[in-house]
Design goal:
The chain is of the alpha/beta class and about 280 residues long. It has one domain: NAD(P)-binding Rossmann-like Domain (Rossmann fold), CATH 3.40.50. About 50% of the residues lie in helices and about 15% in strands. It contains nine helices and seven strands. The chain has a seven-stranded parallel β-sheet, sandwiched between helices. Helix 2 crosses helix 8 and helix 5 packs parallel to helix 6. The longest helix is centred in the middle third of the chain and has 27 residues. The protein is globular.
């Protein structure tokens, strides 16, 4: 490699995106590639990854795919090592991998509980632990974005496991913002909080007798009301460019849910919104 090529490689922005095989993650990869970024796309499903990456590489983008289970701390460590060995820096880390779960809390098996929490919470933690110290050692500006959900600020019966994990992810991200501001001020932190965005997240819900009807309902909701993932990716990068902490696909939905949550806490209401008398 020539000196000029090495300089171009190390100066080019590098985006690491988990959950990149489909849906929002795939759209983020496409948008990052359009912006001229080198894309490191990680997902547990190698076939989805390759299908996502093929048109990007055909169009001239530099895309490195990595089959990674974000619930495996060592695997995420290896991903970080590979990225830094090859590119020397990370400009944008998007901890986006997530799974949905449906059903009453007492219907969910311990295995399903552990699986969802491992992806939705541990997966973000592993990304932070493996990448942020390296990003903090680099004086160049960079950003970490964690994907949560409007489910991380509200409460919905039948989606408790998902909500618990997303509430935890929201708190993790807010804490990370404060800690990076104190220790690594060049590392900005944002939270990506989508509402209805078309993806296959409900298609991948484990099929159980108790959640079949609910899964079909939510699949229909995404088809009928969901924002296209490409539009969500556009909003994502527009908000990144503006330096924002909150990245919202549906501000009106967020405001409605957040307003209800704030009122519940301020007025000490019951979870159903009624006075606690």
């Amino acid at each position: 490699m020539t000196e000029q090529a090495m300089t171009e490689q190390t100066s080019r922005q590098v985006a690491v995106i988990t959950g990149a095989g489909s849906g929002i993650g795939a759209a983020l990869c496409a948008r990052a590639a359009e912006r001229g970024m080198t894309v490191v796309a990680a997902d547990i499903d190698p076939e989805r990854l390759e299908a996502m990456a093929a048109p990007l590489t055909a169009a001239g983008a530099e895309v490195l795919t990595a089959a990674v289970d974000v619930t495996d701390a060592d695997a995420v460590d290896r991903l970080a090592g590979t990225v830094y060995d090859r590119f020397g820096h990370v400009s944008l880390l998007v901890n986006n991998a997530g799974v949905e779960s449906l059903g009453r809390l007492w219907q969910i098996s311990p295995a399903e509980w552990r699986r969802a929490m491992a992806v939705n919470v541990d997966g973000i933690f592993h990304g932070v632990r493996s990448f942020v110290p390296r990003m903090g050692a680099d004086p160049r500006p960079s950003r970490v974005v964690n994907t949560t959900s409007v489910g991380g600020i509200g409460t919905l019966a039948g989606m408790g496991l998902y909500g618990v994990g997303k509430h935890a992810a929201q708190q993790l991200t807010e804490t990370l913002y404060l800690e990076c501001a104190a220790d690594f001020p060049q590392v900005a932190v944002s939270v990506f909080c989508p509402a209805h965005v078309r993806s296959r997240i409900f298609d991948d819900v484990p099929q159980k007798a108790y959640n079949t009807e609910a899964a079909a309902h939510w699949q229909g909701q995404l088809r009928e009301k969901g924002m296209d993932a490409a539009e969500a990716a556009r909003i994502f990068f527009d908000r990144i460019d503006a330096g924002r902490f909150w990245i919202l696909t549906h501000p009106h939905v967020f405001e409605r849910i957040a307003g209800g949550r704030a009122r519940l806490l301020a007025e000490r209401l019951r979870p159903d919104g009624e006075p606690d008398r």
